[in-house]
Amino acid sequence: VADLETKISEIEAALQSSVDREVTSAKIGELAMEKLKEIDEVAYVRFASVYRHFKDISAFMDELSTLLNDK
């Protein structure tokens, strides 16, 4: 829980320090995925599968491959 709260604080700080007055939901989603990847890979994959609307298993597998290659 503490890790999650820390990541939320990091997202908020990044958004507040942005020079843009308006922040798109896409930017928030990307930041959330980035932080989830750091603390829980399963949560990241679950969020990414909904957020990115994978059209087929191939796109989903590509994302998993990227995750594994980043290690």
In short:
The protein has 71 residues and is mainly α. Helix content is 76%, strand content 0%.
Q: How is this structure best described in words?
A:
With about 70 residues, this protein is an all-alpha fold. It has four helices and no strands. Helix 3 runs antiparallel to helix 4. The chain is globular. The relative contact order is 0.11. The mean pLDDT is about 90.
Layout: helices, strands, pairs:
Blueprint: H1 2-16, H2 25-39, H3 41-51, H4 57-69
Helix pairs in contact: 1-2, 2-3, 3-4
* Helical residue percent band: over 70%
Q: Write the element-wise H/E pattern from the N-terminal end onward.
A: HHHH
As a percent range, the share of strand residues is under 5%
Main beta sheet: none
N- and C-termini, Cα separation? 23 Å
Provide tags for this entry.
single chain; 71 residues; mainly alpha; 76% helix; globular
